[in-house]
Design goal:
Blueprint (H helix, E strand, L loop, with lengths): L1 H30 L26 H60 L13 H10 L6 H8 L3 H13 L4 H10 L10 H65 L2
């Protein structure tokens, strides 16, 4: 079950990130290269018979038609660019939520295993149902592991990821409910001088950090590197095939020339 959760997390991460990166590429083309989307590229020209193609009434209407087409493509591109920006942010949020949903299961499994073997820490002010959110809040505040790298990768702020976690744990889509829950959890409840608490938090969050970073950041970097290498190999293969074709053509031409001597 634990292995399956890690595998599911890795697959979710790759699926969402590949989509997001593709959408970002499209947005770059729209924003910086002023590339007109294919669905907006239309050819529409006002035409008439040769006898009237230079008529003083026809020419302004022809120009007006072209201006209308250009205006349509420009305004359509602006609209699509705006939606592409919004769409990416929605995907980023959904990626964060989907990854966190599976990550919290892993954190819960780590915590449960530790509690069964050694015994759970005593946090009287923390509702047992919210222990995982308490650990997540500790982790995201950077006391254990390097959560900054994870936040940068997910393109979410600390409060945004906490908000998603609170919604998952409370099973509510309410931002107000999530905020109230987050504020009710005080990091001061963690007593660093308490050996049981310290060992529990340090060990579990260190393990969690290693797993989450490997399955998200490291997995994506490996995928990108592998994709780059594959493209390089395919490009080299294409060049070699083209060279072989050129050499074969040259050899044929030479053979024909000798036969004609």
């Amino acid at each position: 079950m634990f292995t399956k959760s890690i595998k599911d997390l890795g697959e979710t991460n790759l699926t969402f990130t590949k989509i997001i990166e593709k959408k970002k590429h499209t947005l770059t083309q729209l924003t910086y290269h002023k590339k007109i989307p294919r669905s907006l590229r239309i050819k529409c020209e006002l035409t008439t018979s040769p006898d009237y193609c230079n008529h003083h009434s026809f020419l302004p209407l022809k120009e007006q038609t072209q201006d209308t087409v250009t205006d349509f493509m420009e305004k359509g591109t602006i609209i699509m660019t705006e939606w592409a920006t919004i769409h990416i942010q929605l995907l980023i949020s959904d990626r964060g939520s989907s990854i966190l949903y599976k990550a919290l299961k892993i954190l819960d499994a780590l915590s449960t295993f530790h509690a069964e073997v050694i015994g759970p820490p005593n946090w009287p002010s923390i509702n047992p149902k919210h222990t995982i959110l308490f650990l997540l809040k500790l982790y995201l505040h950077g006391n254990h592991g390097n959560s900054k790298e994870l936040l940068a990768y997910l393109e979410l702020s600390q409060i945004e990821l906490l908000n998603l976690g609170a919604k998952i744990i409370s099973n509510s889509d309410s931002d107000e409910t999530a905020k109230t829950l987050i504020e009710s959890i005080q990091l001061s409840d963690f007593d660093i001088a308490n050996e049981t608490q310290y060992n529990f938090v340090t060990e579990k969050l260190t393990q969690f950090d290693q797993i989450i970073r490997t399955v998200t950041i490291d997995t994506w970097l490996y995928f990108k590197e592998k994709t780059t290498q594959t493209k390089a190999v395919n490009n080299l293969k294409s060049k070699m095939e083209a060279l072989d074709s050129i050499n074969a053509t040259a050899a044929t031409a030479l053979a024909i020339a000798k036969a004609c001597e």
